[in-house]
Design goal:
By secondary structure, the protein is mostly helical. The chain folds into three domains: 84 residues, no CATH class; 36 residues; 36 residues, no CATH class.
């Protein structure tokens, strides 16, 4: 870089990388969740689902990264021709923000993840099969049997 171009401060780079990582985690989680919900049972193999997630992840993230960098190119914050040290207030703000971000990540790991794992049937527990009721239970045949197909039955732990 020449001296006339503004330099990017470390805090700008840090914010850019943290925001990009947060966007990436949310984007990949949402996409994987949608893929898991939308894949028909006949194709639910680990290899097939993993391939779909990889294709989704890499194809969309490339476009997202281009747009992300173009947005940051228009943001002037964190650029300077002369580097200056952070003030005490800025140091406190960044330290607090970092602690909050780490606390949020640990919260997700320690609180949310076990709940998600708890909702999935393990090999030891027998899943509960819930039958769709239809309008006022009209889809039930005499004797309490359901008149639908097995593809309409939800399986999960309740």
């Amino acid at each position: 870089m020449s001296n006339s171009e503004p330099k990017e401060l470390r805090r700008r780079s840090l914010v850019k990388s943290l925001v990009w990582r947060l966007i990436g985690v949310i984007w990949t989680w949402v996409g994987a969740y949608i893929i898991l919900l939308s894949v028909p049972p006949a194709y639910k193999s680990a290899a097939f689902i993993a391939a779909l997630i990889v294709v989704y992840h890499h194809s969309t993230r490339m476009i997202m990264y281009y747009v992300y960098e173009r947005i940051w190119a228009s943001v002037g914050w964190g650029r300077t021709s002369m580097l200056s040290p952070m003030s005490k207030g800025e140091k406190f703000l960044w330290a607090t923000s970092t602690i909050v971000a780490l606390a949020f990540i640990f919260f997700l790991l320690l609180e949310v993840q076990p709940r998600i794992k708890g909702e999935q049937p393990s090999g030891k527990e027998k899943p509960v099969i819930s039958e769709p009721q239809g309008l006022l239970g009209r889809d039930r045949q005499p004797g309490g049997k359901w008149a639908g197909s097995w593809s309409d039955v939800r399986i999960g732990l309740y």
